[in-house]
Design goal:
Length: 235
């Protein structure tokens, strides 16, 4: 009986074991992993690094305000340090790669750099260069456009005679006397935080000091302070 069982097992081995070769019967179904974007860049103005929001490498599609894919960027140890970032598995509907400040709800706040994406399947290699985080364009987008235009938007009776619309905000602020400053300060004095009334308004004025939550206010103040300290450039 024992030998009989051995014969049965040997027969089954021949039937099933030798009936299949060592290779796979069916070819691999290759999974489309998408394109890869490699981005080289560096940052200055690190004091303006976002605290509440996120500085991220993003892939955008047809919707210019909500990214398809994001990778949060870690703050470098020093300004000017060369970084190489990567986004993997880009989807076919990707239209641009951007270095941007986005909210925690994944909405675009400000884009520092945009590189269009074509329909090729080739990997992307993007050289950005140096980005100044304390740029006036970010101040405009994150602070003025989102919070200030209802009172400083160009209508009659501008608060403080200050117009913060995009096309006139810079010339309305820099080296312009603030009529409500008892000390005769400019709204913004390049390189001089103590003589920039804009910061007094945001820190001490009762109408403005509660405009942002705690972490949001820290981020806004750090951004404006870094911009003013860096020379209040129109960048």
């Amino acid at each position: 009986m024992k030998r009989y069982r051995q014969y049965i097992m040997y027969a089954l081995f021949l039937l099933f074991g030798l009936g299949c070769d060592e290779g796979k019967i069916y070819p691999d179904e290759t999974v489309d992993s998408g394109r890869t974007a490699t981005v080289s860049l560096s940052f200055i103005g690190l004091k303006a690094w976002p605290k509440e929001n996120m500085l991220s490498l993003c892939a955008f599609g047809e919707d210019p305000l909500r990214p398809l894919q994001t990778q949060r960027i870690s703050k470098p140890a020093e300004a000017g340090k060369k970084l190489k970032l990567r986004l993997n598995h880009l989807t076919p509907d990707t239209r641009s790669i951007e270095v941007a400040v986005i909210s925690r709800g994944l909405r675009l706040i400000h884009s520092y750099y945009t590189s269009p994406v074509n329909d090729s399947d080739e990997p992307l290699d993007v050289s950005v260069g140096e980005l100044d985080l304390a740029s006036f364009k970010r101040v405009q987008a994150q602070v003025f456009d989102l919070n200030c235009l209802s009172c400083h938007g160009g209508g009659s009776g501008l608060a403080g005679q200050l117009d913060l619309r995009d096309d006139v905000a810079y010339t309305s602020l820099v080296n312009i006397k603030a009529p409500l400053s008892g000390e005769g300060k400019n709204y913004v004095t390049p390189g001089d935080l103590n003589n920039s009334f804009l910061l007094d308004i945001l820190e001490d004025n009762p109408i403005h000091k509660d405009m942002f939550n705690s972490s949001g206010k820290q981020e806004v103040l750090a951004l404006i302070q870094a911009w003013v300290s860096g020379g209040a450039l129109d960048n």
